[in-house]
Design goal:
Helix content: 55-70%
Number of strands: 0
Distance between the termini: 55 Å
Strand content: under 5%
Number of domains: 1
Order of helices and strands: HHHHHH
Mean pLDDT: 84
Largest sheet: none
Length: about 100
């Protein structure tokens, strides 16, 4: 299997951490698993064309980016890092809906 096929088999943040041989605090991963994986995905997207094609180099870059994503949450939290849109929205929005717009 190539790297992409191997990654498709992984199901959890812990699986990714173990696959790439990274040491991690289970509490950090448990609380921030989705945020870590999304940040990892964001880093991969930003890398785009600069990610090497050969498997060995690509694996090393992926490992480095996952470690970076994990470290982002070691001393921070999801609300501070604002990975998902819900954390970027800011204050609650007030919306006016007239009675005429409500349909039964």
């Amino acid at each position: 299997m190539n790297l992409e096929e191997e990654l498709e088999e992984l199901e959890s943040a812990e699986d990714f951490m173990q696959f790439f041989g990274l040491e991690y605090d289970t509490t950090v991963v448990h609380v921030n698993r989705l945020h870590i994986l999304q940040r990892f995905h964001d880093y991969l997207d930003k890398g785009g064309d600069s990610i090497p094609e050969d498997e060995t180099s690509k694996r090393a870059v992926y490992q480095q980016l996952l470690a970076r994503a994990y470290h982002d949450f070691e001393k921070s939290d999801a609300q501070t890092e604002k990975v998902f849109k819900v954390f970027k929205m800011g204050e609650p929005q007030t919306v006016f809906i007239s009675l005429g717009d409500i349909k039964t």
